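Structure in, sequence out. Go:
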């Protein structure tokens, strides 16, 4: 019987419970069977974790290849966008304002648009014309929380311990 990874933990807990009962009842025959079953589940868990790690390594390689392909496609897209901009500039420079040209596949026309151009740096604008983005300085908060610089502890944030897996 092959258990799924999430089922192995539950099966291990159940066996440990049964082992405790067998020890209390001095049932050594049952205890031997449980120990063999326990060893099999632990090996099964290790095999499954190793296979997960192999899949992760393969997915990382695939992800890196896709990232490289994205870079190539982005460069190609940028080239095409530059060509579009250059060709559009040629049309704009040579098409009289308010005129229209068309054939069976395309229609070219102009229309009036408005675009704001700042004459000063944004820092020199009055406050009513600016936006301020507020964000937490997580690095400083973490340092202060670790140093207990706020006295009773850190009332603004908490440090949560976690772990990451390393697959090589």
């Amino acid at each position: 019987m092959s258990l799924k990874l999430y089922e192995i933990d539950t099966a291990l807990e159940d066996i440990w419970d049964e082992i405790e009962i067998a020890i209390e009842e001095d049932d050594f025959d049952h205890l031997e069977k449980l120990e063999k079953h326990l060893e099999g589940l632990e090996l099964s868990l290790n095999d499954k974790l190793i296979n997960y790690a192999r899949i992760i390594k393969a997915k990382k390689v695939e992800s890196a290849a896709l990232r490289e392909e994205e870079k190539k496609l982005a460069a190609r897209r940028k080239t095409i966008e530059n060509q579009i901009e250059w060709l559009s500039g040629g049309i704009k420079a040579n098409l009289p304002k308010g005129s229209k040209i068309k054939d069976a596949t395309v229609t070219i026309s102009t229309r009036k648009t408005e675009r704001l151009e700042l004459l000063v740096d944004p820092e020199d604008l009055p406050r009513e014309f600016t936006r301020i983005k507020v964000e937490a300085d997580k690095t400083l908060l973490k340092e202060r929380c670790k140093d207990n610089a706020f006295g009773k502890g850190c009332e603004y944030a908490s440090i949560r311990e976690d772990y990451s897996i390393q697959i090589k």
